[in-house]
UniProtKB/TrEMBL annotation, chains A, B:
Its membrane topology: Multi-pass membrane protein
Protein's organism: Companilactobacillus tucceti DSM 20183
PROSITE patterns for this protein: CBS
PANTHER family with a match to the protein in the record: MAGNESIUM TRANSPORTER MGTE
Membrane spanning stretches: 289-306, 318-342, 363-383, 389-416, 437-455
Protein name (Swiss-Prot/TrEMBL): Magnesium transporter MgtE
């Protein structure tokens, strides 16, 4: 990787020199020979004046190839678009793959969108408007309409000829979608299979008619699963009347997978972890505080509960010593079971029958975990304090607190999911703060029952 | 999706009928028309007798196409291989894509591997042995050697002709790798570009010679990043003498991305979350207990620390009321900063300079978070207990505890990473248990200083 990077830095220096000297020809040659992603890395190093002169050197479609690789949520994009002249920006957006153009438009306000679309040919503008219509996290929100269509009666030779026409604009030409006279999708053929056919073979006779499709409303996570299972490079998207409206390509699916795992990870952490090195401490703190303060309020309920038992604590201040051991360990167990449950929900749907089976299993898992941990703490406390009755109280409380935390950790995300919420929102910090409350309640109830015996022992 | 599934179930029923009746011809037709992944789903529903009869109906290469889609860590695979006869199994492994075959062999013991390889042509066996040699989580461990090679002097027409030869065996034919007379990789061309060329154009004149490659030792996460950036379908792998030894394809990269995110998620949760619904509670508990017991021991240190302050607690049992509020909130803050740090480390390398800058930023973020949270708790406690000096003690302790937990949450993974450990191992439960210790220490130190004023107030 390092060598790639060094070579790239040299090119960037060269390019800046050409730009300074106004050597458009050499600039174009060096720039256009680079990968689109490298072009975008270069573009992002430029200041406004440099960018303005680039717009005079490169054609809108050349600019669009590079913009296709930019992250659509890059905060600078609106600025870039506004510093171009309107017709240049519109043409660039129109020359981009339509899914990427729609993703960029998604982040602009309505007036801006209308300005850009107003400059495009009516059909292209309507196409983009159609894409903007879909929910971002569905198949419709990530699909492109730039795919290759063929008629079932075409021969292999005709198809290859036609493919050359598509190759300029289609997002992928490696899957051919075969339609019948009613424009219904009746088959798929890979370019690999097409290349191996005799010139006169018709598509109809050699296409794969066992077509895996996704619905335009399918959640993006569901679409990603299809790619994992079938190892496709693209999958066709159908609307409600089973007409093909687009394809989702594998590069977008990689983004989806990253997105989904970032959401799960953020959920477990109780903070949105998309902070970048650029985030200043004030902004970072403002992202973390809402959850922290909410959970602080929840933990104040735990404090009032302990306050309620102040009499017990005054009699046996030794009880205070083990509060954090019990709440901490139960919280850890709850976090574990939460993570397992959220991950399971991400991978499979759970019906009613399985729901109760899983809850039963998790209860048993919690109990086994609780017994082993409880027994450990019984021995630790017993030997340390030479008081096995106290050890038993702590051990019992630990066992019960872990069982309850474990159950909560799996039950809460499962309930959330069955009521249609994203289970990943039930964060680790939430579960451990909630389990503090139940653990304290369990601990002092048990301690209260045995108070005489272990204080007396 | 549901409709896909229903249609599939019908096919499976049909297939089982053909199998029962011994109707080999119809079975082959229906089975081979299905997608490889659907074939594997069907295969996994069969009992041993049914599987044995399948081996007599399908050729080893047809079986191999299906085995290519199986998860390589499926625990039943050794059983499947052993119930086939040896030469059938070896031929099937040899007909699979070599990266997938190597992944399967990876899970067998050495004697088994030798048995299968012993049946293969020497060159194929050596090729697989070579792949087994690489670390699983590197480019070498996930690459295939089934890629398409062309000489730079070939014309487009020759190349397309040759491609048909490769199309049977190569894992992808959508990227063509162009070699010179020394077998050095000098260019890459996509099939898309090839198709658009005139018949007599030579590859040399139209190939892309700005080649992005990965080293055979590169970590799989690094390889995944190349795919994210460049949106490739495959990337060439070079050995230490810059000779091309294979390619990594996008389907394997999706697996890598899933792997890596599962590892991060498991790290944050303090448990390996690859538990399936099949895991019984005993097995699930045994996966969770090691971390729990380890952290229990750490939390016992916190208990001895509180024990050390028992005198203080006896004088002011009100202090016990806020232990869990302070430890819990600081633990939550630590988990947040840990998650942000681990995620940042996954995305970018951090040099020495940035290290200190990031630590400074995180310290400030923690302090801001601490001040806001501390002020909130000051007010809550002040009004609740009508004692603002007590409120100030709790608030100060909270502020300091959060600052420290935040710092630890980011410092520990960064230090681990700079010493070459996987930062994701520093789990959320570990940070929150560790922060219990520092929080209690801070809390009682501050409370001790102000004891007279707030008990007296």
């Amino acid at each position: 990787m390092d060598e790639n990077e060094k070579r790239l830095q040299e090119k960037f220096t060269q390019l800046k020199k050409y730009l300074d000297k106004g050597d458009k020809k050499r600039f174009r040659k060096t720039y256009l020979d680079m990968h689109f992603y490298d072009q975008s890395t270069f573009y992002l190093t430029l200041n406004k004046d440099e960018r303005l002169s680039i717009y005079t050197i490169l054609e809108p479609d050349e600019m669009g190839d590079m913009f296709d690789t930019l992250e659509d949520d890059l905060p600078e994009i609106p600025e870039y678009l506004n510093e171009m002249n309107l017709s240049y920006a519109s043409q660039m957006l129109n020359d981009m793959y339509d899914d990427n153009a729609a993703d960029i438009l998604e982040h602009l306000d309505k007036v801006e969108v209308d300005r850009f679309l107003g400059q495009m040919p009516r059909a292209d503008a309507n196409n983009l408007r159609g894409l903007l219509h879909y929910d971002t996290e569905t198949a419709g929100g990530i699909m492109t309409t730039d795919y290759v269509r063929f008629h079932e009666d075409e021969t292999a030779k005709e198809a290859i000829g036609n493919l050359k026409r598509f190759a300029e604009t289609a997002e992928t030409i490696y899957y051919l979608y075969v339609l019948d006279n009613h424009d219904d999708l009746v088959g798929v053929m890979s370019l690999r299979d097409l290349i191996m056919l005799d010139d006169n073979a018709t598509l109809k006779d050699h296409m794969n008619s066992d077509i895996i499709t996704v619905n335009v409303d399918a959640e993006q996570a569901e679409v990603a699963q299809v790619f994992r299972d079938y190892e496709f490079l693209a999958v066709p998207v159908l609307d409600h009347s089973n007409q093909m409206v687009g394809i989702v390509t594998v590069d977008d699916v990689i983004e989806v997978i990253d997105d989904e795992s970032l959401q799960d990870y953020s959920g477990l952490a109780g903070v949105s972890v998309d902070e970048t090195v650029q985030d200043n401490p004030l902004k970072a703190a403002s992202k973390r505080l809402p959850w922290l303060i909410t959970l602080l309020l929840l933990s104040m309920i735990t404090a009032t509960l302990i306050n309620h038992y102040e009499g017990l604590l005054a009699e046996a201040s030794i009880l205070a010593v083990f509060i954090s051991t019990i709440t901490g360990t139960a919280g850890n167990a709850g976090t574990q079971s939460l993570a397992v449950a959220v991950r399971r929900l991400a991978v499979e749907e759970i019906n009613r029958n399985e729901f109760f089976k899983l809850v039963g299993k998790e209860l048993l898992t919690g109990f086994i975990t609780g017994v082993v941990t409880g027994a450990s703490v019984l021995l630790l406390v017993g030997f340390w304090k030479h008081n096995f009755i106290l050890g038993m109280v702590i051990g019992l409380a630990m066992c019960a607190a872990i069982t309850v935390a474990n159950l909560a950790g799996s039950l809460i995300p499962m309930l959330m999911s069955s009521f249609g919420f994203d289970p990943a929102v039930a964060s680790g910090p939430f579960i451990s703060t909630l389990s503090d409350l139940t653990s304290v309640l369990i601990y002092f109830s048990i301690a209260g029952m045995f108070l005489q015996s272990f204080v007396g022992a």
